[in-house]
Design goal:
Blueprint lengths: L3 H9 L6 E8 L12 H13 L4 E4 L5 H7 L15 E7 L7 E5 L2 H11 L9 H22 L10 H15 L3 H10 L2 H17 L13 H16 L2 H24 L9
Parallel strand pairs: 1-2
Antiparallel strand pairs: 1-3, 3-4
Helix pairs in contact: 2-4, 2-9, 5-7, 5-8, 5-9, 8-10, 9-10
Glutathione binds next to loops.
Length: 270
Amino acid sequence: MQSRIQQIQNQLKPDTMETTQYTFFDIPTNSTPPRSWSPNVWNARAVLNYKKVPYETEWVEYPDIRVRLAEMGIPSKGGLMPYTLPMMRVTTTPADGSEPQITYLTDSFDIAKYLNDNHPTPPIDFDTTITDEAIKMFNANLMDTFVGLVLCDVDLVLPERSAAYFHETRPKWMMMPVKDFKQKKINEGAWEKMENGMKVWVEFIGKNGGPFIQGEKVSYADVKMLGYMMWAKEAGPRDVWEKIEGWGGEVLKRFMRAFEEKGVLNRITY
Ligand SMILES: N[C@@H](CCC(=O)N[C@@H](CS)C(=O)NCC(=O)O)C(=O)O
């Protein structure tokens, strides 16, 4: 019979432990190295970085997303965007070295929740009431102007093929060329709406003294709000981000700094 010590030693041997590897699929910018810029992708990347779990990034350009994901056997979601990123591949190799098990998580929320369940510390509060409230606040006050002033210029930071894909696909839901859609939003008062929206944002984020919505405690609602800010910062035109920074003032500064201090903004290029 094995002694208790031997049993523990065997359990601790690297070749007898189950291992899990994460591969994170993200959309690149045209910079070298590429940078993470998409709000949906940030909802998941922020959690990976916050939890400090090891992962590797695979960059997939817009037109290649459906090809790459279909090739892995991931089913289409149908509609205008049958395949989307972020996606995370979880490869688990059993302790006995048998065939690895592969799981694909194909939605940012599912990735974030999976990570929080499997890596409980540091924790993220997934209370749906706060998340719903934050999303409702953002959608009612800022989403429309972020689409007009940030999304419409995302092609400026995209590699050539991705920018072409953007101009081919987005007019289908904008019902007009991207340039005209942006102008329409500006004519409808996008700048003023953004300024007013940021006032509501500041009040919402700062209501418990900051840096996060509930004070010191990080929630998934904060992660969502960070995703939108990273979208503007990384993919929006410089002047838009500068305006947002100005309107966001101390509350936005503290919010971003607090995430930075937790290591969340460290991994952006790999
Ligand atoms: N609900 C999804 C939405 C993700 C999403 O819309 N991703 C966009 C990039 S921001 C995408 O991959 N689009 C692919 C396309 O346009 O073909 C999530 O949050 O994971």
